[in-house]
Amino acid sequence: MPAPSPLRETLYQVIFHVDTAAGRRFDTWLIVLILASLLVVLLDSIEVIQQRYGLWFNLLEWGFTLFFAVEYLLRLYCSPRPARYAFSFFGLIDLLAVLPAFIALFYSEAQLLIVIRVIRLLRVFRVLKLRHYLVQANFLLSALRGSRQKIIVFLLSVSTLVTVFGALMYVIEGPEHGFSSIPKGIYWAVTTLTTVGFGDITPKTALGQTIATLVMITGYSIIAVPTGIFTAELANAMRQDNGLHLAHACPRCHKAPHEAMAAFCSRCGSALYPAPAPKPD
Amino acid sequence: MPAPSPLRETLYQVIFHVDTAAGRRFDTWLIVLILASLLVVLLDSIEVIQQRYGLWFNLLEWGFTLFFAVEYLLRLYCSPRPARYAFSFFGLIDLLAVLPAFIALFYSEAQLLIVIRVIRLLRVFRVLKLRHYLVQANFLLSALRGSRQKIIVFLLSVSTLVTVFGALMYVIEGPEHGFSSIPKGIYWAVTTLTTVGFGDITPKTALGQTIATLVMITGYSIIAVPTGIFTAELANAMRQDNGLHLAHACPRCHKAPHEAMAAFCSRCGSALYPAPAPKPD
Amino acid sequence: MPAPSPLRETLYQVIFHVDTAAGRRFDTWLIVLILASLLVVLLDSIEVIQQRYGLWFNLLEWGFTLFFAVEYLLRLYCSPRPARYAFSFFGLIDLLAVLPAFIALFYSEAQLLIVIRVIRLLRVFRVLKLRHYLVQANFLLSALRGSRQKIIVFLLSVSTLVTVFGALMYVIEGPEHGFSSIPKGIYWAVTTLTTVGFGDITPKTALGQTIATLVMITGYSIIAVPTGIFTAELANAMRQDNGLHLAHACPRCHKAPHEAMAAFCSRCGSALYPAPAPKPD
Amino acid sequence: MPAPSPLRETLYQVIFHVDTAAGRRFDTWLIVLILASLLVVLLDSIEVIQQRYGLWFNLLEWGFTLFFAVEYLLRLYCSPRPARYAFSFFGLIDLLAVLPAFIALFYSEAQLLIVIRVIRLLRVFRVLKLRHYLVQANFLLSALRGSRQKIIVFLLSVSTLVTVFGALMYVIEGPEHGFSSIPKGIYWAVTTLTTVGFGDITPKTALGQTIATLVMITGYSIIAVPTGIFTAELANAMRQDNGLHLAHACPRCHKAPHEAMAAFCSRCGSALYPAPAPKPD
């Protein structure tokens, strides 16, 4: 690969990094444009507003598409590995940000376009990725990753509970009270177990209401489970980061977490990093 | 008992264990079939679909029943202690998986069958039991077991609260606002305390709404209790696993469990980690 | 006070204590009767059942009242300090358990009676008090007591939030959308903030729905506060009870939590309970 | 600045402090008046009551305004730095407490006045600020401050989730099922994700209900995140206050903060609590 031209390097700094003032300014404008394009989507979906300003919204959408398209091409141009960028998660999101207006040329009534246009919001995360808030997101993600297996077991149990209760309610209440099928019963069971409680389908028989009571108490109690899992993991992750508690074990007593700067074990007093060569006594 | 024939041993390995490739393949297919049979139950309960494909679903159900019956007989045949298996929790579940189609021969409209067929889902857990996810489930179960007594006290208090509030609302609001009996009042109180809030029965009088406010605030606050109990137990269980409460014995009096950070034996006061060699001063 | 007669002493053992087999049997029967009397109240409130068995329920109520009255008089008779018992919390509850049937002689339609009869349920707690479950209740109570001040601050903030939001919604939505007064607005705000969400009153205007969104997100986020407070307190209370961590401080280094049986400080190795008289060296 | 006159000093003590009996009495009366003025606002908003006592409420409002105005002027007069007080948060709240009645002279139907009058409730916090409850509020605030960044990341993720799900539901369910625009879809998504579940808008199609199930499970699971963040922070804040991270300096190298359980200095390895006197062997 030839050495990148100065223009490409400058563009790369501005578009992909935030170390320079220009890079930060670019990112700020990008966020403003993304949010503006989102606002247009939101307002465009309100019928009263759409009827009055629909044309303007269309124009604006073309403007945003143009900008995002130029930006996408520039990203492709200045990226050191264009193919890798193009197929990365954010590369695909960037491409999706450009597509809606073009698709609309062919299918004028494609409802799906709206969702694609909303997905542009995900691009905000790319910009934020470069900022220091991500350290905190890392905490959350590592806590979530640490509790993944526990959460899968939890979700499996919840799924079983919900299926059994859904089928039970379908049998007990039946279609005449809104439980027209087992999937609908499951929908109701999820609504109840998660304490959402829409109230669009509710038990009418005494037995149904008794089981509903059981489901609600269960849901109210097991909400503790994901919370407990996550809190314990997060407390773990934060304790390890406290600076005081990095994990290098004492070579003698194997006490594992030590202050970051510790030279001697705080339990047995032996040197944590003994002389590399055996001392000639 | 005579030594098991090679066939029985191989079957036992395949059906009850996952150590071999064949065993894993068998388990995977079993899960697929269980989920497929569940899907048929779900779809069969939707009237539109049932009217079109009802016959096919019946045929499929007979297929699943045949497979599960053969599997059940094989399990009985190859199990080292057939009686013990037959009366174990999962043995009974396995038997239940076979029954619905046969019962349907005699009672064609038995609604209960649907629930029995859904219970097949529990069989998935047996298969999962053999996988490493269960270590995580053990964590959760041990945390739940540790907090059992606290949770019983909590549920007793909630039951009392709910009964008193239910009776109060029945007296205040009365049948004309949907609180037609005390059990209905209790149902409403559970709905409100657990923050589900269906909205099928709601207080209409000022006094009733004031008490409802009280119930909601109570429910919102005491949701902390099961969460707190469980989180504290789980953090406990995880900490103990963390190796933080490691058992290092005193070199003199051999007292075995010590605080994780102990430097001196709490019984005889001698250093747990004596200087490796007396310093040549 | 003269020495109690043997009969009084035996009665006192049976009625107030659970150390003897007779005492335990008495308590078990008492719980059964309390729950049976509660069941009668619940069933009596269902109109269909009341119309058929109302007379039987009346008779049963008189039976329960007779039993509870005899029990109350016996308690008064055998208690070492009858006056103190009569005015204790459970003494008053015991008296209340007897009153409803007698009041009903004079006011045949007193709705309040139902609530008084339900309050009998509280008597179950007295019986349970003597059992070992109360250790767990003590944990919960001590955690709640420890977090009392924090919870008051929290409830004050929630009250302010709810009042301001209630007034705001009354102004924005107005009586035509169900927000007919500020108290009603507050009722709605509590319903929303606690994530109960009955749906009997819901915002209809765009501005109202925006504020509702704000209230919901707030409620969803600050549910963390009581949970966090309680969990932290409970973890604290449990850690101290672990048996490993009783609080007697080392006289030299002041390390405070030690194993219950510790004789020497685990940090500095000095005796936790030095010889009472200075050692004559 | 000249020395304050004795009157101004006395007033300052009474109005701004609670150290004296007069100061405490003043604060108590102030709270009573604030709550009374709030009660008048609440009752005044109930139409039935307003029609009967509206005139009295008007008179009372003028009384409160007069009192608060005098109090405000006195605060300005006796404060050592009047300007700073006037533009402080509570200074502005105090001014707002006086305005409503005066504004009402010019705009008789200003609905906004009600909200301004309710904001008086915030003044209660100023009074409480001087009490010892604030130590607890500080705990909560410091825990909230510590988790600010994590909570921003969390709210950003929730916003994205809610926007995408809202757009999705708008496309799937459409205006005929109440999802008349994307903002309305977002409002529904927030209602569902926060487990409030009003039930004013609910999915009717199978696909919509499936996605609703997903949203509910998500909301039920991620409620763990703010709880976990806050609990971990609060436990941290309380542990640090617990004296567990006490600063005991090394007697040789004087390194000051050590792990709570450290027996040896982590920098120089010398015993933190050397033997009180070398044992005479």
Summarize the structure in short.
The structure is a homotetramer of 281-residue chains. By secondary structure, chain A is mostly helical.
Describe the structure.
By secondary structure, chain A is mainly α. In chain A, 68% of the residues lie in helices and 1% in strands. The first copy, chain A, has twelve helices and two strands, in the order ααααααααααααββ. Chain A has helices at 6-16, 21-44, 47-78, 82-86, 89-106, 112-119, 122-129, 134-146, 148-173, 182-193, 206-222, 224-241; strands at 246-247, 257-258. In chain A, strands 1-2 form a two-stranded antiparallel sheet. Chains in contact: A-B, A-C, A-D, B-C, B-D, C-D. The interface between B and C is large, with 60 and 67 residues.
Largest sheet of chain A: 2 strands, antiparallel
Largest interface: A-D, 67 and 60 residues
User: Per CATH, what is the topology of the largest domain in chain A?
Assistant: Four Helix Bundle (Hemerythrin (Met), subunit A)
Please tell me what the overall shape of chain A is.
flat
Nearest-angstrom radius of gyration of chain A? 28 Å
Oligomeric grouping of the chains: homotetramer
Number of domains of chain A: 2
Q: How are strands sequenced across the largest beta sheet of chain A?
A: 1-2
Number of helices of chain A: 12
CATH architecture verdict of the largest domain in chain A? Up-down Bundle
